[in-house]
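We append the chain.
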Amino acid sequence: MVQAVPSQQRGILLSEAALRQVLFLRDRQGKDLCLRVGVRQGGCSGMSYLMDFEDPSKIRSDDEVYDYDGFKIVCDRKSMLYLYGLMLDYSDAMIGGGFQFTNPNANQTCGCGKSFGV
């Protein structure tokens, strides 16, 4: 059984707007899913963000798990080196809307906000 980190020690933070949107998208899937957040090599700034729903049965013992009132955000430890302190926000603005990543570890970001460099 994987233990979730208490709310005051979350390494990945969600704004209320982001949490509402993630829960809305999850509910459209029609099943209980967690959100996996990570990074991969690539993107115009060197690394790009990954974010996708995943079945909770795929949570590994070495994953970091953060609980938001029963909804879990999961991140592998390697990605957490680049994402610790990340704030995920959401805007429904017609221009520039969608999920926004504010990463305190990034020393450069691209114009689209979906990739970064460290």
